[in-house]
Give the backbone structure.
Amino acid sequence: MLAHQTGYGANGKQNFLFPLTDMYLTQGYGTGTYSHDGTYAMDFDGYYNGISMDHAPYFAPFDCTCVAKWGSEGQRVVWTSDQEVNFIDGTVGYATIEFIHDDDAPNIPVGYHVYQGDIIGHTGTYGPGQITGDHVHIEAKKGLYTGHHENTYGVYMLNDSMPLTDLIGVNNTQILNTTYHGTTYVWNTFAVNEPEPPSIHLTRKRFPWYLIADKLQKRRILTK
């Protein structure tokens, strides 16, 4: 998706969009996948409009609210959709997504709200374990947030998480790499991805954290 992009299906519900402008996969899911053993988590390097960069922005895939932060120092940030959304597999329901490694994660309060297309975070190196470089770790599921658990491989993961390829559409995303350890993950776009109806959110309040993040990102891009 692009910055400030919105997308609605024919049913008037928001589409669940991939949260970066570019997709460069660096770690997939399954077993034998380093820190993702037994999970559906995926890692993506930071790109912004074709430019590789640290602290690249990623965007809210739908209107959502931060519902939880867990792990030591709260480095895992969990967001749940405000309303039911369209999944790429054709189903509809509430959605939950988790991001890890944003260096600004400690400053994001539970209860914070963003609209689809707003900056929701940046790639980074903050968080648990051995971080191999600036990136974002993403997990997602259908339904409301119900916690997390440690799987049989000793890896913590969202309850009931699912493959991102079954949930997310890549409308307007530039695809750079979708292969990891010989597996190529197949992504699809929503057939109907209408822009936001003008009657919704006639004005959008920019919260202080959003404004700070936006200014920081502009500065990062200008000094890159």
Residues 38 and 144 are 21 Å apart (CA to CA).
